[in-house]
Automatic annotation (TrEMBL):
InterPro entries assigned: Exostosin (IPR004263), Exostosin_GT47 (IPR040911)
GO cellular component: Golgi membrane
Main location: Golgi
PANTHER family: EXOSTOSIN HEPARAN SULFATE GLYCOSYLTRANSFERASE -RELATED, OS07G0188700 PROTEIN
Transmembrane region(s): 21-41
Locations listed in the record: Golgi apparatus membrane
Protein name in UniProt: Exostosin GT47 domain-containing protein
Region annotated Disordered, chain positions: 105-139
One Pfam family from the record: Exostosin_GT47
Annotated keywords: Glycosyltransferase, Golgi apparatus, Membrane, Signal-anchor, Transferase, Transmembrane, Transmembrane helix
Length: 541
């Protein structure tokens, strides 16, 4: 992880950065205020019902009409839905109260899941749900029904109760979408095998547009807060922070109307201004984030009400997961929106969000989108990149300059364009570097090249909606020596289908300013919306 500190961009901020003295003037009062709120702030917490699952598959054999929009159950710790008020993620729902939410999320069996369902490239077939360890559904339902009854009995006619009631209506509408036709939409109608359940996704997206509200905490000053890079490999941090802060549709300035609460710090800026380079000491970053959480939890009641379960952070820097360790509730309970979506390092697909790493060198995508048709792509596969991390050396050892069909280079020859090579390749190899995420995945999609994900423990972006196996190839690190045979085994007909699907899903990865419907900004919000649908918060006060 420490090696990834070398990945520093020359352009960091969407807006001008403050001086080091300005940071000092912010951090010192932060510590002072923290001392006060520690003594005076509220400490009580209330109940949260949260599902441990992974969208979007309907289980036709379930006795309840619980929604699961992805396709397969592959976790030994999953359980079937308990009641018709639960919108399940993938195939399971685990209902817990606030006293056990930390333990539920710290269970390694829930965090270390495979990156995507074991489905064929051509078609996703819903599997039959099975109970782990022989547990009977009725037994499990009896054990957890107490929590459900208690939560229902404690609902009050408050703003929060009104919000939760609206979320229940949204969950019901998404379930019903399976049985109806898609709504006509002048902009875009999701359709095809690229989506786990296109009807349910469309309904969920429309419900998000109609209801979803985000409160952005106003505390903190740039460059650490309310700011981030927009012209670097970590550009999505600054892009999202900027867009959500100027957004008039989803942002609310009234926290009583908010479904989720955003902690607007930039990990990239923390690394640049707070971390002492090459010190390998994360203490200053952790302390800054810890102080910030304590300030907002002392000033507002919302963090303590759910212990952070309806809050989210967003980080594209490799150290995003490490930064979330600043506060135990931030890591275990909050929605962590991460580029570095590595299940072996604690990424939990049931509550965390994977979003794409996009290297916006110029701040936008102008000139990067589009490519020739499949018949004009003469190169089987292409990769060019530095040797860092454990996977790329293996790839280069087996394939660098050894096969005319697989153009694998550490350095491109002079006069050869990186993007032209991608545009004329059928498949683009996307091996992980120091961390699992790679900007090559989106670069491949932008140029119409079928991405080949070479990684272990990586959860691709928007896997709750997108069936990656329909438009990409997943190759285990152990299969790198057999890479050419794997790609050659894909028929021309199948490749053409995959390539067309890449072009179709590209809209979900495009960066627009201002954002456009179904683009990357809205897909990030939709993933957060899905996680919030499975968190139940109520006020005991």
């Amino acid at each position: 992880m420490a090696n990834s500190s070398k990945r520093w961009g020359n352009q960091y901020a969407c807006s001008s950065s403050a001086s080091s003295m300005a940071i000092l003037l912010f951090v010192v009062p932060l510590v002072v205020v923290f001392g006060l709120v520690t003594l005076l702030g509220p400490k009580t917490s209330n109940w949260v019902l949260i599902s441990n699952s992974y969208p979007w598959l309907w289980n036709s054999q379930s006795s309840s009409p619980s929604l699961n929009l992805t396709g397969a159950s592959n976790s030994s710790s999953e359980f079937p839905p308990l009641n018709d008020d639960v919108l399940g993620l993938r195939s399971s729902v685990v209902v817990v109260d606030m006293h056990s939410i930390e333990e539920a999320h710290s269970d390694d069996s829930l965090q270390n899941r495979s990156s995507s369902p074991p489905l064929s490239i051509e078609e996703a077939v819903p599997p039959t749900l099975e109970q782990p360890n022989g547990t009977r559904r009725d037994d499990y339902a009896n054990e957890t029904q107490v929590s459900i009854v208690k939560a229902e009995g404690q609902r009050k006619n408050t703003n929060l109760g009104w919000l939760e009631a609206r979320l229940r209506r949204a969950r019901a509408a998404i379930r019903e979408a399976k049985f109806g036709n898609q709504t006509q939409d002048v902009d875009y109608i999701p359709n095809g095998p690229m989506y786990w359940k296109a009807n349910a996704f469309q309904r969920s997206y429309l419900e998000m547009e109609k209801r979803f509200k985000v409160f952005v905490y106003g505390e903190g000053e740039p460059p650490l807060f309310h700011n981030g890079p927009c012209k670097s490999i970590y550009s999505m941090e600054g892009n999202f922070i900027h867009e959500i802060e100027v957004n008039k549709q989803f942002r609310t300035h009234d926290p009583e109307k908010a479904h989720v609460f955003f902690l607007p710090f930039s990990v990239t800026m923390l690394v640049r201004f707070v971390y002492v380079r090459d010190s390998h000491d994360f203490g200053p970053i952790r302390q800054t984030v810890r102080d910030y959480v304590n300030i907002v939890s002392g000033k507002y009641s919302y963090w303590n009400r759910s212990l952070g379960a309806d809050h989210f952070m967003l980080a594209c820097h490799d150290w995003g997961p490490e930064t979330s360790n600043s506060d135990p509730h931030l890591r275990k309970n909050s929605i962590r929106v991460l580029c570095n979506a590595n299940t072996s390092e604690g990424f939990n697909p049931s509550k965390d969000v994977s979003f794409p790493e996009i290297n916006l060198q110029t701040g936008d995508t102008h000139g990067f989108l589009g490519g020739p048709s499949p018949r004009l792509r003469s190169i089987l596969a292409f990769f060019a990149g530095g040797v860092h991390g454990p996977i790329r050396p293996v790839l280069l050892e087996h394939w660098e300059n050894k096969d005319q069909d697989l153009r694998v280079h550490q350095y491109l020859p002079k006069g050869i364009s990186y993007y032209d090579m991608m545009r004329h390749s059928k498949f683009c190899l996307c091996p992980s570097g120091y961390e699992v995420a790679s900007p090559r995945v989106v670069e491949a999609i932008y140029t119409g090249c079928v991405p080949v994900l070479i990684s272990d423990h990586y959860v691709p972006p928007f896997s709750d909606v997108l069936n990656w196996k329909s438009f990409s190839v997943e190759v285990k690190v152990s299969e790198i020596p057999n890479l050419k045979n794997i790609l050659m085994s894909i028929s021309t007909k199948q490749y053409i289908r995959m390539q067309r699907r890449v072009v179709q899903v590209r809209r979900h990865f495009e960066v627009n300013s201002p954002p456009k419907r179904f683009d990357v900004f809205h897909m990030i919000l939709h993933s957060i919306w899905l996680r919030r649908l499975n968190v139940r918060v109520h006020d005991d006060q």
